[in-house]
Specification:
By secondary structure, the chain is of the alpha/beta class. The chain has eight helices and ten strands. Helix content is 35%, strand content 26%.
């Protein structure tokens, strides 16, 4: 399995504070990868380096072989990113926001229309896609942002707390969609505190504590019985 995300000897310092310490991770095509850790462990800092929002103090982050910081455009074309606090332009409708995102990726007009219709159906956003974002609930925002992250068919989806604000039906839609897309080659890098979601969806996991990986599964396909991951996580991070 070829790695689509390759993190090599990555360290991030903020002054004397070491947020991420010599991190190594390799995530293959079509893998659903769970990145876990307690608050302040370095998860979000790692995600911001992978997406190019932070430059590492040392080390490299590669997406499909492209260095995110030295060769950013081809790397970022391959990324879809959903932060833990979804951002929308308040005066734009959901449809206008999706058109804006498609424009950033220079997608042809016919494909833009096709993709917007596709994700309107996938995430059931038709009832509010033409309303302004200032009227949206948290769950509505999350579904629009997820649509925006996937609309250009990225090879890698990086997602921080994917089920924030979603009702049970919407959460099921998101989980089913993400899992189905990994069968078609999408690599998902997910950070979450919801361990039951990790048990349900993830092929492989790593746990970070105080900027260092303290546990990593070496093989894709590990399945865990109900509650097993929670017990292990609590023991490792206590």
């Amino acid at each position: 399995m070829n790695p689509t995300v390759q993190i090599s000897h990555v360290t991030k310092k903020f002054g004397p504070f070491v947020a991420v310490d010599n991190l190594d991770l390799s995530i293959g095509e079509g893998e659903f990868f769970g990145f876990l850790g307690p608050n302040g462990a370095g998860k979000t800092t790692t995600i911001k380096m992978i997406t190019g929002l932070y430059a590492p103090t040392s080390g490299t982050c590669l997406i499909n072989g492209h260095d995110v910081h030295r060769d950013p455009l081809p790397a970022k074309r391959s990324i879809g990113y959903v932060p833990d606090q979804p951002f929308l332009y308040e005066k734009l409708t959901g449809r206008e926001f999706l058109h804006f995102v498609c424009g950033l990726f220079n997608m042809p007009a016919a494909l833009v229309r096709e993709k917007i219709e596709e994700y309107t159906e996938v995430f059931e956003i038709g009832d509010f896609i033409d309303r302004r974002a200032e009227e949206y609930s948290q769950g509505m925002r999350q579904r629009i942002v997820l649509s925006a992250a996937l609309i250009h068919d990225p090879g890698v989806l990086i997602i921080d707390e994917p089920l924030v604000g979603l009702d049970p039906r919407s959460a099921r839609l998101v989980k089913d969609t993400l899992k189905e897309r990994t069968t078609k080659g999408l690599t998902v890098f997910m950070s979450t505190h919801l361990l039951e979601i990790v048990e349900e969806l993830c092929d492989r996991i790593a746990i970070i504590k105080q900027g260092r990986i303290i546990y990593e599964e070496s093989q894709t396909g590990a399945r865990r019985s109900n509650g097993e991951l929670e017990t292990m996580f609590l023991e490792l991070t206590k």
